[in-house]
Amino acid sequence: MFAQSFGRGDFSVSGCRVCAGPLQALADFGRQPLSQAFVRPDEVSTEFCYQLAVGICTDCTMVQLLHEVPTAAMVHEGYPYHSSNSTVMRKHFQDTALSWLDNELADRRDPFVIEIGCNDGVTLQTLRDKGVRHLAVEPSGIAGVRVHKAFFNAASAAAIHSADGPADIVYAANTICALPDIASVFAGLAVVLADDGLFVFEDPYLGEILARTSFDQIYDEHFFYFTVRSVQNMADRFGFELVDVERLPVHGGQIRYSVARRGRRVPTPAVAVLLTEEEGARLTNPSIFDDFVARVDLTRDSLMSLLRRLTAAGHTVVGYGATAKSATTANYFGIGPELVPFVCDSTPAKQGTLTPGMHIPVRPPADFADPYPDYALLFAWNHADEIMAKEKAFRESGGRWIVYVPDVRVV
Ligand code: TYD
Ligand code: ZN
């Protein structure tokens, strides 16, 4: 499926990852470092880069990356997930698990739930506390929940099925869009999902990325940019069926998809409603991206002129949240330490490193108030409410936030 493009260190995809159909290029953000490759000051010379470009499959409409970083080059392989440290996300995952107990799992005897890649482990911990059989399937492992250390595929699914039986729910949050070998995921589902079970996954929604110009959702680890239409096609291709969709407010707008074995459930009206909405928005029409790219460049021009103006006038600007997303922003726009001298982040493993590509030093959140800068560039805009509430003393002391999604604003 992959053809090596020499001299680049990454691979060009020769066809759609779902159906092998032809890919049409939509947008190109140039050479980029790996979004999670925070570097130690002595490592900067060995930085790996790849071409960040997206395209659409003209057969199944799946929007996806056109190049791929070899898994071996992904720095964090085998390392634990970097927690987002968000109380909003903790509650989101707790509520998710609790709602299953009231609905999907309510009438099942001794239900069994699998999570593929388990984030902070909050969803499964919540189920564990309620005595529900659970299993995380993920290579790195996480404390407090049962883990099968493997990638989710037919082989690991078979081992799980023989030990634990079929799964009533297989869940994945911010994970499926990051698994390029999607056929292997469905092969695993075919083995381990109960006949009347549900595969539930949630990921960034292309409709929101386009509507809010949240271009920085596009980075190396997000291979797929799902729509209801493309997920419906994908499920169908692998013998499954999209039976429910639910919009989620988290991370700038996601959709939670529920997929069943084909013919097992009647799709809810929400599926047809969103499909119609997508047609109205011409979401699967490649031309919509022309306007998107123009809007991204507008954001770049206005943010860069703002940062340059503030810096020239002697104002201080500090970044807030060393997100994976911000690798795309900083590198595509060209935001380095001369404009943003440091970025603060609550993740201990990121502190003391430099951000990928632009090498902005990452420091602990305590440095934010020591002293407060004049402006804070909110790279973690997906946690805006939570962070602005936590840092309300910053605004009270006269500080201002700069946000750039959906457009550049000083608040
Ligand atoms: P995340 O939401 O996972 O976004 P991405 O997938 O783009 O990396 O990351 C949020 C980052 O922001 C993470 O590095 C932790 C940091 N953060 C803070 O520093 N303070 C906070 O209050 C929150 C919520 C996050
Ligand atoms: Zn396709």
Give a written overview of the molecule.
This protein is α/β, with parallel strands linked by helices. The protein folds into 2 domains: 83-281, Vaccinia Virus protein VP39 (Rossmann fold); 300-410, NAD(P)-binding Rossmann-like Domain (Rossmann fold, 3-Layer(aba) Sandwich). Helices cover 29% and strands 24% of the residues. The chain is built from 11 helices and 20 strands. The chain has helices spanning 87-102, 122-129, 154-164, 182-192, 206-211, 228-237, 269-280, 288-312, 325-333, 384-390, 392-396, and strands at residues 2-4, 11-13, 23-33, 49-57, 63-65, 67-68, 112-116, 133-137, 147-148, 167-173, 193-204, 224-225, 240-248, 254-261, 317-320, 343-344, 362-363, 375-378, 400-403, 409-410. The strands form 4 sheets. The protein has a 7-stranded mixed sheet, with helices on both faces. Helix 4 (182-192) links the parallel strand 10 (167-173) and strand 11. Helix 1 (87-102) crosses helix 2 (122-129) and helix 3 (154-164) packs parallel to helix 4. The longest helix is centred in the last third of the chain and has 25 residues, at 288-312. The protein is globular and about 65 Å long. It starts with a strand and ends with a strand. It binds thymidine-5'-diphosphate and zinc ion. Thymidine-5'-diphosphate binds at residues 82, 84-86, 321-325, 345-347, 365, 380, 382-383, 386-387, 390.
